Amino acid sequence: MKIKNIALLLSILALPTLVLANGEHHVTMMDSDFKYRVLNFAIFAGLIYYLVANPIKAFFAGRSDDIANQLAEIEEKLKASKKRRALAEENLVKAKKKAEMIISDAGKEATLIASAIAEKNENSLSLLDRQLAEKEAVEVKKAIKATINDVLNSGFDNSDINVDETKVVSLISKKVA
Q1: Which pLDDT belongs to residue 24?
Q2: Is residue 12 situated within a structural domain?
Q3: What is the pLDDT of residues 118-147, one digit of tens each?
Q4: Which of 36, 69, 83, 155 has the highest CB neighbour number within 10 Å of its CB?
């Protein structure tokens, strides 16, 4: 299809040249219309430049401005990103320090709680020891009283035995020992 179009175009351009060509006619530069064709081309090029130059300049200037704006926007985003990164790193360092402080405080608090519990347990144990000692003393006193009552009651039941103070004391000493 393209080949047919190209062949048709070439034949349209070549046909007038072949028909009008005459072998006897010699054209020189002075006899030709070359000057006029150059003048027409210069006018045409000037008109094209006049009509198309400003829109093309505006297009490329706008495109340059768009690229510059995009570049500035990208640089601004990069700076903001760097600031956010620096802030995040700073927050990370603060968070690490705070975590270390929390761990340290938790260790100290655990030590304090453990020592408080140990102290309470020691106080409870010493209180229990004192209570045990007091109960032992009370029980010893009860046992002594019971022994004395036993001795006295057994000693006074017989009316034929004479008991004096020295004998009672010796009897109690023997029972207690």
Answers
A1: 60
A2: no
A3: 999 999 999 999 999 999 999 988 888 888
A4: 155
The C-alpha atoms of residue 56 and residue 66 are separated, in whole angstroms, by 15
CA atoms of 58 and 65, how far apart (whole Å): 10
Q: Which residue segment(s) compose the domain that 68 sits in?
A: 25-176
CB-CB contact of 168 with 155 (8 Å):
yes
Token pair 């320090």 in the structure block, residue: 97
- The structure tokens listed for 48 are 């094209």
- Asked whether residue 3 is assigned to any structural domain, the reply reads no
Kindly state whether residue 94 falls inside one of the protein's structural domains.
Answer: yes
- 175, two tokens: 């029972």
Residue 56 lies in a domain: yes
Residue 108 has pLDDT above 80, yes or no: yes
pTM over 0.90: no
- As a whole number of angstroms, the distance between CA 125 and CA 39 comes to 124
Contacts of 107 (CB under 8 A, 6+ apart): none
Among 176, 148, 140, which Cα is nearest to 156's? 148
Report how many domains make up the chain.
Answer: 1
Render pLDDT for 145-176 as a digit per residue (tens, 0 to 9): 888 877 777 655 555 556 677 777 787 777 77
